[in-house]
């Protein structure tokens, strides 16, 4: 018989696990890792002077994508991948970053999917599903840390120097500033470790004496604070 067990701690862990997975996924796909120095594309002149195409803007560069404003166009900022193939990513360090981040995100997405079903299933192969998920989140966090540590080492690549100037070098961003995606990835990594630790509390909450008492009473839906 399936017992649906809902507690505040288990629901909070599930919610945080989903937020961490989606946060890391959105950050990885974003082009806002580095924000380039202000520049002005070639102005387009018309009857009333320069058009908006000549206004200053700051291009952005992600791990495999970028946002730029092309001169002589009215399409505004264009965003898309600059690397069609894995080997075209700006540097070997960023390739390693992609691998580690992708591995961590894959584990986080798997845990987020499993966490939805922890209300009904609390064990797998006689092991606590919360402990297993907590272990996977800890491993994912290590992958994410490795990826974020290697990412600044790629700032000396030719691609980055186009956006950040010739002063950019490994672990020195030159004229660039960090975009929201980098901070989101850092925040998601911290949240991942919080979830890994908090999974133990979720396990305790769903296996408490109060839960066992309600199971013995024959209840199939158990909600506890």
Stretches with pLDDT under 50, minimum 5 residues: 43-53
CATH class: Mainly Alpha
Strand order of the largest sheet: 7-6-5-2-10
Task: Specify the CATH architecture.
Answer: Up-down Bundle
Average pLDDT over all residues: 85
InterPro entries: LHFPL
Subcellular location: Membrane
Family: Belongs to the LHFP family.
Main location: membrane
Description:
- With 225 residues, the chain is an alpha+beta fold.
- The protein has a single domain, classed as Butyryl-CoA Dehydrogenase, subunit A, domain 3, CATH 1.20.140.
- It is 49% helix and 14% strand.
- It has 6 helices and 11 strands.
- The chain has a 5-stranded antiparallel β-sheet with strand order 7-6-5-2-10.
- Strand 3 (45-46) and strand 4 (49-50) form a beta hairpin.
- Helix 1 packs antiparallel against helix 5 (180-206), helix 2 (92-115) runs antiparallel to helix 3 (129-150) and helix 3 runs antiparallel to helix 5.
- It is elongated, with a radius of gyration of 23 Å.
- It starts with a strand and ends with a strand.
Summarize the entry for a quick read.
The protein is built from six helices and eleven strands. By secondary structure, the protein is of the alpha+beta class.
Annotate the secondary structure layout.
Elements: E1 4-7, H1 8-29, E2 34-35, E3 45-46, E4 49-50, E5 60-61, E6 65-69, E7 77-81, H2 92-115, E8 123-124, E9 127-128, H3 129-150, H4 158-164, E10 177-178, H5 180-206, H6 209-216, E11 221-224
Parallel strand pairs: 1-11
Antiparallel strand pairs: 2-5, 2-10, 3-4, 5-6, 6-7, 8-9
Helix pairs in contact: 1-2, 1-5, 2-3, 3-5
